[in-house]
Amino acid sequence: MDLTFDGDHVLGGTEARERFYDSRGYGSPRDGGVALAPVEAAHLCFRGDIASVDDSRPGGADTLDFEALLGSAAVSEVDFFVYKELRDRGFYLSPVRPDPEQTTDDDNLVEFVVYPRGKGPWDDEIAYRVAAVSERATVDAAMLRDLAREAQRGADDTHTATDNPTAVLAVVDEESEVTYLEVDEPTITGSTYHEFPAVTARLLSDRVLVPDPPESLHERAFYGQRLDRDDDPVQLSLVEAASLAGDDLLTLDGAVSGDGDQQIRDRGRAVEGDRFDRRLRVYSALRTAGVVPKTGFKFGADFRTYADVESVDNLGHSEFLVRVLPGDHTFVPRDLSLDVRLAHGVRKRMVFALTDEDDITWLSLERLTP
Amino acid sequence: MDLTFDGDHVLGGTEARERFYDSRGYGSPRDGGVALAPVEAAHLCFRGDIASVDDSRPGGADTLDFEALLGSAAVSEVDFFVYKELRDRGFYLSPVRPDPEQTTDDDNLVEFVVYPRGKGPWDDEIAYRVAAVSERATVDAAMLRDLAREAQRGADDTHTATDNPTAVLAVVDEESEVTYLEVDEPTITGSTYHEFPAVTARLLSDRVLVPDPPESLHERAFYGQRLDRDDDPVQLSLVEAASLAGDDLLTLDGAVSGDGDQQIRDRGRAVEGDRFDRRLRVYSALRTAGVVPKTGFKFGADFRTYADVESVDNLGHSEFLVRVLPGDHTFVPRDLSLDVRLAHGVRKRMVFALTDEDDITWLSLERLTP
Q1: What is the pTM of this model?
Q2: Which helix (H) or strand (E) holds A40?
Q3: Which residue of chain A is at minimal alpha-carbon distance from B85?
Q4: Cβ–Cβ pairs < 8 A, chains A and B
Q5: How far apart, in whole angstroms, are the C-alpha atoms of residue B164 and residue B166?
Q6: pLDDT digits (tens, 9 = 90+) for A133-151
Q7: Which pLDDT band holds residue A106 (cuts at 50, 70, 90)?
Q8: B173 contacts in A (CB within 8 Å)?
């Protein structure tokens, strides 16, 4: 069977089309024959379905077998391992290049369109859109956001899925194992809104003390902690205090009106730098959404969140772990793996709050087994 | 009862000594009376045992009550919350300053000497040496190492414990909760030594392929992974391949003798930078100790380790998660919390391999409930 690599695709005739495309979903039809992506040809070589392909590139080798294809620039190891892993799981899939007009990503990241089990490129459904990266790659927050949004648009040029496909980041580690992370834009909403009178407080070096708090400040709205017993002062974190002061619900003892707000923010910046402003923005956005953020320190995160707090005596399980990051943050896959694994272990969902000057993008990542 | 703050200690007479030191382990005897550290006086004020102390400092306030003490520079909030938390757990404890000759730390970090329950400063045993830090502090690797070593020396000037006390890092988060992390220098040793003939391999862009491996390379010594089935080539990570090449157990196809070693290291540095050399040093040290390191990617770590591998079909549980860091690394407590929590959730012990030019310091951290 003649299969020729032209530097872009591996091209075959009618027989190759029937054997590889029609019956097993490799490549796409072209001129009655088939055009295979190099990673698809490498997989056919790996399986022993073809021994090698002819290399028609100027100055190319005569033939390319599996090892030569995998060792060549035409096939990235990362793409091969993801392609193989998904085939091993019983999926048909096609490599595509993301539409450059729809993404901010310009480094020609390959994505895979993965069809539901039992379906193929000739059908109309997509189960997953998978971006494949090495554990040594860096992953821009914007890339993850684009991946999630592109999946939500659902369709691509040739497939008009009824259900939106799932956006997936597939990370190939140094031992070639693949970890799949589902990327989504979560809806963050709760019902925690409790009224209480404004309080007077005292600023300490890294927290704020409310000597005489109304009961609902802590017991219902879940701000701060009692120093010890039920009738003790409530201590607030700086971010809690700054959020309350911004809503005119807290004034500092001895500060002129409005000045307390500024003093708390100044203290926050002194102990935490720019991070304080980002965390305050995210904290306030969560409160506005009716969600209570509490410290996520024990989980290595910024916040854990409670959606529907009626009373602190009956809190229920916290749902999200939130990590606050600048909007232009670049992730290292290992850190994503760490966060997602930990969140899973404590039955929470990992959410990244990507904070720009006037906007927060929420992205959730979860381990996925396709 | 007269209690006077002189800027350094709160001093009281015989009655105060009897009430606070003799019966409850606060302070230390001085001239028949008692000298309390400010944090101890703040705790007595907080409990209501004393209402306030006189301020004898030039230009000081007349009296200092609990809020004034906590708001003053004499008492750090971090120290107070750790002191209170350990008292709440039923311990007597004394603040000390680490011996500057024994540590590289010169920023006057306060440590607490914590006595076993039922014992006090007049006894001869120490249960814990606790360094208290804020979640916003940075923690030098050297500080953690010194803390572990000082605890292992066991004694201090006045206590000659028979058992070594446990070294503890106590982190106070922004909501004033305390997380205790036990710091130790673990013994890392295993029994995995299997012989096999040297192999010939092919360098790909981010891994190495061994087309015709002896069975014990993977199945017993647990290097690499089979590409797929039992008789397939073995793929090695770059760090595995570099370690084998350094031990003359791997040569690259077509490379002159010794040159393959260099080629693999060069490739490792190209894809990973300086980190590659550190990871290779740690990888090789673990192998020398009879321990098998495999990727820790799914746990967000560098390696997970197996101490006693007879056969990959019967691996047993991996014991450690290893994170490789430069010797002068500065930790953020939140990251420590994340790593330790994750390791605990997967029943492993978190180990940091602090890598200097010619030396590796191993530190393990584990969550502790005193």
Answers
A1: 0.93
A2: helix A38-47
A3: A228
A4: 146
A5: 7
A6: 999 999 999 999 999 988 8
A7: very low
A8: 295, 297-298
